[in-house]
Specification:
The complex is a heterodimer of chains A (341) and B (278).
Chain A lengths: L3 E5 L4 H10 L3 E8 L2 E6 L25 E9 L4 E5 L8 E6 L1 H14 L6 H8 L1 E6 L25 E5 L6 E5 L2 H9 L5 E2 L18 H8 L7 H6 L7 H5 L6 E8 L2 E8 L20 H20 L9 H5 L6 H10 L3
Parallel strand pairs in A: 2-6, 6-7, 7-8
Antiparallel strand pairs in A: 1-9, 1-10, 2-3, 4-5, 4-12, 8-9, 11-12
Helix pairs in contact in A: 5-8
Chain B lengths: L8 E12 L2 E8 L2 H6 L7 E6 L3 E6 L10 E6 L3 H7 L6 E8 L12 E7 L4 H11 L8 E7 L8 H9 L4 E6 L11 E2 L2 H8 L6 E6 L2 H13 L7 E4 L15 E2 L2 E2 L6 E3 H6 L5
Parallel strand pairs in B: 7-8, 7-11, 8-9, 9-10, 11-12
Antiparallel strand pairs in B: 1-2, 1-6, 2-5, 3-4, 3-6, 12-15, 13-14
Chain lengths: 341, 278
């Protein structure tokens, strides 16, 4: 299929932003807060950060918020009324400035949330979200998207992928979905013709660092390896890796009560936490940190491909950047590839 | 409304039964009759029970699907939610969602002898399948139940134990740990694996269903093997920590196997395929 390619002038982006605002879209974009760049509601085009390789947090909180309501309840004298979360309350949202690795992550989250039973809370959020991917012109040593099936100009998961053609250049916009086309219709004058434009020379060079399928095959026989202990000795189980990850979907369900009424909420959790699998009896199937680290890698590179036919990593590199004790997933994967069983 | 998979049904506690210190059974009925009529489950499945404002907790459905119009759960008061549940009275309203997980394949067991082995608070997850098979008693040959607890007080379902004791078509052996007996105790004294070895039930044409604390299970498997039970003829039900009940929250997996979806019922042959992480 031929992708509809358009040219958007650099100075048209602000106009596009304003048109979306005028059409009551909520726009999440990378904004700087306390020295960190993360996805948050951008009130103006000027608030959007542009000079970054990777945001601190991924964009996953738009479709899978860190804490979200499942239901509300009110207790009466002899009764309880319970209201499910109202999907209609989800605003029409644009995520602006999504890196291709995060865009690919929505597919992986979707695989988890739709495995067998359908999680309509997630699905409704996603269906009201339009993803503006922005290709990467720069990468750093933590990036490894090309090793896990992605690339810095990957269209997967974006509704429109913007690629800036040179520093200070105009943007090539690839219109990839119906949601993307709807934006073009909304701001028709801003999307010019660009039939011949090629993006390849403008995107970052990210060399392939390991063979993903090779690692998957290796992991089949790697469960009992001593390597997990060696790799995780310095892990402090803080869970930062899971919180910055665009595909980690493990969650907890808790009640928040305010007197007679309250909500049941779902919140992010991490397999790295020691209490994650603890039974009430005191028995813990993943008792030590090496078992929890093994779970993290096995889930992403062995269990998910086997059960859901997708890998659980997009190579964004955030876990390596965020880790307070320098656990580097890329180094660890390469070492799994190299060690003999 | 039910397209929100986390929405529980509202259930009224019809009856509270005190079973043992800290252990209670709730008989639950759907507030909405329509929900009741639509609801079906099979032996071995579990659910999420919730006290609004406190949270959810996972237990098996302890009543048999042959007993229509209600479900029962039995729990020990140990954590935040079970403490709140324990404080609920007859008439209180709680949440329930389920059923989740796979089932005991009782259709495949027709014409066979059944041997149930349970320890302590692990009789509740087996009570469902015990009553299910007893309610279809003609389909099965000999039914033997070996049940042990730490002390006489800790034995749950005391009335039902008496009923099984009286029944001619059930062989019941109860035991308590050494030191756990009362002066008038007439049952066995000894740990469950020892008593299984002593009773030595025949493995010929027999399915063994076992549930209990990990240490009991660990020492009973070799006894069953010695008696000639194959790994395919031994069933158990795993209980891992869960939040969602349908393979998303990420807690209950043992390797690539999800206890909530692929289990909780496994044969010993299946367990042996799993990594040792449960």
């Amino acid at each position: 299929m031929n992708i509809d390619k358009r040219l958007v002038r650099k100075d048209s982006l602000e106009k596009l932003f304003d048109i979306l605002k005028q059409n009551s879209k909520t726009i999440f974009a990378p904004v700087t807060k306390n020295g960190k760049i993360s996805f948050d509601v951008a009130e103006s085009y000027k608030a959007i950060a542009t000079d970054y390789i990777q945001t601190t947090q991924s964009s996953k909180n738009v479709a899978f918020p860190r804490t979200e309501k499942i239901l509300d309840y009110t207790k009466g004298k002899n009764s309880i009324s319970v209201k499910p979360f109202d999907y209609q309350s989800i605003p029409e949202t644009i995520i602006w400035g999504v890196r291709p690795c995060d865009a690919m992550g929505t597919g992986e989250l979707s695989a988890i949330f739709n495995w067998d039973s359908k999680d309509e809370i997630f699905n409704n959020r996603l269906s009201r979200t339009t993803v503006f991917g922005f290709s990467c012109s720069k990468a750093d040593e933590s990036c490894f998207c090309t090793s896990v099936g992605g690339n810095p100009g990957n269209t997967v998961g974006s509704d429109i992928l913007f690629t800036q053609m040179g520093e200070n250049g105009d943007y090539l916009a690839e219109i990839l979905t119906e949601k993307g086309s709807a934006i073009v219709t909304l701001a028709a004058g801003l999307f010019g013709k660009a039939d011949k434009a090629e993006k390849e020379k403008y995107i970052a060079d990210v060399p392939v660092k390991f063979d993903q399928n090779g690692i998957r095959n290796k992991l089949e026989k790697f469960f009992e390896s001593e390597h997990w202990v060696e790799q995780s000795l310095r892990c402090i189980g803080c869970g930062a890796c899971a919180y910055v990850c665009p595909t980690c979907a493990c969650f907890d369900i808790q009640d928040e009560s305010h007197g007679k009424s309250g909500s049941r909420v779902r919140c992010w959790d991490s397999c790295g936490f020691s209490l994650f699998t603890l039974h009430t009896s005191g028995h813990n199937p993943r008792e030590v940190q090496s078992q929890r680290w093994r779970q993290r890698i096995m889930h992403k590179f062995s269990y998910m491909p086997e059960r859901l036919s997708v890998y659980g990593c997009t190579g964004c590199g955030r876990c390596s950047r965020a880790c307070p004790v320098d656990m580097n997933i890329l180094e660890h994967l390469i070492s799994i590839q190299e060690v003999s069983i | 409304m039910m397209d929100n998979i986390y929405m529980p049904w509202l259930m009224r506690i019809e009856k509270v039964t005190y079973e043992a210190p800290g252990v209670k059974t709730f008989m639950l009925k759907f507030i909405n009759e329509e929900d009741q009529n639509k609801f079906t489950f099979k032996a071995g499945q579990f659910g999420e029970y919730s006290v609004y404002g406190v949270g959810e907790s996972t237990f098996c459905i302890a009543s048999s699907p042959t007993r229509k119009g209600y479900i029962e759960c039995t729990f020990r008061q140990t954590g935040k939610v079970t403490n709140a549940l324990s404080g609920c009275e007859e008439g209180s309203i709680i949440g329930f969602r389920g059923p989740y997980g796979n089932i005991f394949p009782i259709d495949e067991w027709k014409g066979k002898n059944l041997l149930f082995i349970a320890g302590g608070i692990a009789l509740p997850p087996m009570r469902c399948v015990i009553w299910n098979t007893l309610d279809l008693r003609n389909n099965f040959k000999d039914v033997t139940i070996i049940y042990g607890a730490r002390t006489v007080k800790d034995l749950v379902y005391k009335h039902e134990l008496q009923e099984w004791e009286r029944r001619r078509d059930v062989k019941l052996i109860t035991t308590v740990d050494p030191g756990g007996e009362s002066p008038d105790w007439k049952g066995e004294i000894g740990f469950v694996p020892t008593i299984v070895e002593k009773v030595a039930p025949s493995s010929a044409n027999t399915i063994a269903i076992i549930c209990g604390p990990p240490v009991m299970i660990k020492y009973t498997f070799p006894v069953l093997a010695k008696l000639g039970f194959t790994d395919e003829s031994i069933y158990t039900t795993l209980e891992n920590r869960m939040k969602c009940g349908f393979g998303k929250c990420g807690r209950c997996n043992v390797g690539k196997v999800y206890v909530c979806k692929d289990g909780p019922v496994f044969t010993l042959a299946q367990l042996k395929q799993l990594p040792d992480e449960y």
